[in-house]
Amino acid sequence: MRRTLSVLKIFIFIVLALSLVFLYLQGRVAVVQEEHYLLGTYFRIKAQSRSHDQAQRAVHEALAEAKRLSEEFSRIGAGSLGALNRYGASESVRLSDDVFTVLEAAERYRELSGGAFDHTIGKIVDLWGFTQDWDRAGVGRIPSADELQPLVEEPRQISLDTTAKTARLSSPNIEVDLGGIAKGYIVDRVVEILKKHELDSALVDAGGNIRVFNDRPRKVLWFEDRRPFRIGVQHPRDESKILGVLEIWGDHALATSGDYQRCFFADALKNIFPCRYADEPDKIRYHHIIDPKTGQPARGLISTTILAPTAMEADALSTAVFVLGEQKGLALIESLPNVEGILVTDNGRIVVSSGLKDINFPTELP
Q1: Do residues 269 and 283 lie in contact, with contact meaning Cβ atoms separated by under 8 Å?
Q2: What DSSP letter does each residue of 11-35 carry, written as one string?
Q3: Is the pTM of this model over 0.85?
């Protein structure tokens, strides 16, 4: 009898041990992460799959597409956007499918925001020194009123031919800058590629333009391990802190625009100083988010975070809302389906849209 019990105990132990090994193997996943410098920022892809080779193939294909599109959307490069900026004031320019698609979307967001989002102000942005190679130069300047006024007052229109997929600029004073929407589009295209590879989940981050998806929750036997992505929202005045953490389920996008991303300080004598997160009482902060109606950096908000179904929508709206300011920006957010926002005002208040009232964020900058 004792021998029978001992054998039974050994058998039960073996079964339990094999079950634990099986559970471990079932729950094990492969994570592949790569980061490259693209679009003037760090472009990161993190993919999770049950197969390391599958995840690696997906990430490599997605990165190749991101690199191709980053060249296509350079406003001074060899792609069709660069060609439009060089020749578009004198002739119609044939655009690639990608550039034409984003240009059409930019026109819609320009109209939707009442001109707060404006992709035709490339030359105004350049006057401030926020050129495409800002990260290498890193030095801004304060343009004079005489320099700004002609560019601000110039009617800036783009004629699009949807059949021929061409565009023409109404003035040589126009330079199209799709930087406020193209990163989101590229993130969305990368996500499309990753989804074709049937990954469990992935995160794509282009300098704060983020999209995540969790299409296949990890399964262990009959259990599903469902977890949200937890994304921190940057504190706009302290790079070592976050305002709080957003839990994002399923497939969703997030983008943040802030006056700390590309900026410089100037004193009363207009001497220029490097940008920092923290304000300096005796200096004025100048940043790259320009109000198209004034040609000056937009004031009133210091950070806008938008949650939306796609990265392109979140990207464009984060800029538009920043320029619109608290009241008009919130009104725009509330008018759009499945869009939410977190705004930080220049006096330190944190304002959230109606769909985020339950998040655990402070009401003032900590």
Answers
A1: no
A2: HHHHHHHHHHHHHHHHH--EEEEEE
A3: yes
